[in-house]
Amino acid sequence: MESIITKLSSLLDAMPPITLEEMSSIRLMNRTDTKFVTNLSTLYRLLDMARDDYYAQEVCGKRISPYRTTYWDGEERHEMYRTHVTGHATRMKVRVRTYVDSGVTFLEVKKKDNHGQTRKIRTSVPSLDAVIKERAGEAFLEDHTGYSFGEITPTLGNEFNRITLVNRGKTERLTIDFALNFYNYETGREAGMQDAVIIELKRDGRVSSPILAILRALRVKPAGFSKYCVGVSITNEDLRQNRFKPRLHKIDKIIHKQQAMP
Question: What is the pLDDT of residue 138?
Fold first, then answer.
């Protein structure tokens, strides 16, 4: 992993930095979100091709940030997992996310409606342990989900590294996640997807996107990827849905495929 971080850092150093304060001024008024799945070898080429068009977010002098996330779900029925893998238009996730470098932690609720729009709301909490042991943030949880912490339980944890890019016109944000590791609280099983790269493009739909042309040149196509559902599926075979198996197979093919030169 150290050699991967070194290579990525070198590529990111070719881009000018953008601070969190500058990021907060970016308003995407007509936002569209699109996910892509690829592999590390393609990511190296993408960053090299994008260096003249993008800023790299820098936090505490670093351009690669580690994240930790824990997801909650129903202890018996796993409602949030099942609504996603069975294709329900409306669905929800409850998670605690920690920004490792700063130690800042949030309890987050992420909802998707039947129009395909996603809304994320969050509240600051002292730590993951405070949520698990002391039910920190429970009033927020009940207000926005109708659940209490007595009705849902920690189900899946993950860790990953994130790169955030912003185009020079400041009309889009690009998050790039890699080095995914999962831990299942129920089965005790761990699994990793070290070669997977998950790209999410959040852009103003009214303007052109430099990264889309680069992705097309690299033959990277849009593909759905839920860290929660993928993580649960590869760490708890009892919950794997038949309709989700083809997606896992497709993801596996993508991340282990060496992209041919266009």
Answer: 97
Cβ pair 189, 236 in contact under 8 A: yes
Give CA 164 to chain center in angstroms. 11
62 bridge partner residues: 59
CA torsion 38→56→122→194, rounded to 10°?
A: 30
Distance CA(252)–CA(262), nearest Å, equals: 21
Report long-range pairs for 231-234 (Cβ below 8 Å, ≥24 apart). Answer: 231/71, 231/156, 231/158, 231/180, 231/182, 231/184, 231/191, 232/78, 232/81, 232/155, 232/156, 232/184, 233/85, 234/182, 234/191, 234/193
Length of the chain: 262
What is the amino acid identity at position 107?
Answer: L
pLDDT score at 116: 67
Q: State the pTM of this model.
A: 0.89
Q: What is the model's pLDDT at position 261? A: 40
CA 19 to chain centre: 20
Q: Which of 110, 260, 132, 130 is nearest to 185 (CA)?
A: 132
Dump pLDDT digits (tens) for 45-80. Answer: 999 999 999 999 998 889 999 999 999 998 777 888
Angle at the Cα of 256 (from 227 to 181), degrees rounded to 5? 35
CA angle 44, 192, 90 (to 5 degrees): 90
Helix or strand or coil: residue 241?
A: coil
DSSP assignment of 80-134: HHHHHHTT-SSEEEEEEEEETTTTEEEEEEEEE-TTS-EEEEEEEES-HHHHHHH
